[in-house]
Amino acid sequence: MPHVIASDLDGTLLDANHTVDAYTAQTLQTLEAQGVRFIIATGRHYRDVRGIRDVLGIRAYLVTSNGARVHDPDNRLVHAENLEPEYARALCQPEFAAGTRLNIYLDDDWLIDAEDEWLAGLHQDSGFTYQVSDLTQHSGEGVAKVLYIADHEYLLGLEARIRERFGDALYVTFSMPDCLEIMAPTVSKGHALTVVLGELGFGAEDCAAFGDGLNDLEMLQTAGLPFLMGNANPKLVAQLPDVPQIGSNNEEGVARHLRQLFGLSEHLDG
Q: I want to staple 64 with a disulfide (CB 3.0 to 4.6 A). Which of 46, 59, 60, 219 is the partner?
């Protein structure tokens, strides 16, 4: 039986509206009362995820910006890695950002190059939102993540150009088909999971993990008991052919699987 549960958010723990449902929140609260520890691992910003954790009602570690930041349940910064400023500055120039909605994540701020109604709607649980800024003028200092949002086919071309230009100097991944994310080369959810497990005094064999996107690959490879969502990206499924798939996020797949795994009632209490 796992002692630690690590889970992605969008497409995994959150529903189709990118919000927390009562069934999932109660499931996690019940398991925490039994001594299970939780890690939320996501590409989202720390301040955003802190609000989602409050809605879930658990004392989870937060792995954010795909592992560039790790905070403990008391919001203490445990681990941080930034992009090299020269790379962050280059990635914010039109050579790469043209044709995309450009975002950068700092410690406390989320900066974006123009208003975006869709993005604002993804963050209704936390209330955290962006600030519009001329990112071509940013110093590149303190950047945890650069995020490009555009059509998937366009982003595939952009990904190829970034890899050709920077090689192994960057960690490049997709969190969703229309979200291309760039971090420091040693960043990943898998590395951050190892950091948290060390803090907790558990090994990888003690951890179950759930994910659906390509940015979950390293986390699922690290955890001793990995699970793919039924709605997982086919490219991720192809890379993890031996990992079992469970229900989708629209079916409370994580909560229902955890209830089965730990022998809990399938019904919502109260």
A: 46
